[in-house]
Amino acid sequence: MTEASTKERIMEAAHxxxxxxxxxxxTMDDIAKHLSISKKTIYKFFEEKDAIVGACCNDDLSSxxxxxxxxxxxxxxxxxxxxxxxxxxGEMFSxxxxxxxYDLQKFHPASWKAFRSxxxxxxxxxxxxxxxxxxxxxxxxxxxxxxxxAKLRVEEVELGLNPVAFPPSKFNxxxxxxxxxxxxxxGITTIKGYRLIGxxxxxxxxxxxx
Length: 210
Description:
Elements: H1 3-21, H2 28-35, H3 39-45, H4 49-74, H5 78-94, H6 100-107, H7 109-136, H8 146-160, H9 173-188, H10 191-209
């Protein structure tokens, strides 16, 4: 097995464990045991747990960014793009431990900073593009303030991850994110856009029911 493939295996295992149990509770011993390798092998590639967290975070952000760009590129219209993003977010958050983002924020500041930069730069730009597209297609109200609403949307994402505002013991993270996004899109659509939301949601339910 090559060094590159070994490093990739370590990252994949750590990623799966972080998603399942959160970051704080997983140790280097846990990762080594999960892979049936020695900690010495892990330290050959990562000097500490924080380095693994950072590598996994950067890899995840790149993957999510590419996926959302693909959604935008292949969507039929701005509303369809939003609905597909809702579907993707649902899949992502349903497999994620609700403590993951809290652990990043509290114990891994560099990774949290990377997440915030991704959110405030790349995601905000995608939201702005979607809003302009929706206005052009007659699906979003022409009087909306694009800059303000794009900023609101990315802040809503972080709000939904806040365990103080939405304690995991009382709220499901997936439902929180989808509810917030659903509220957002209904607040910006024209009658034409509103009808499309219903059409795409009905189609989604039919497909899921098959």
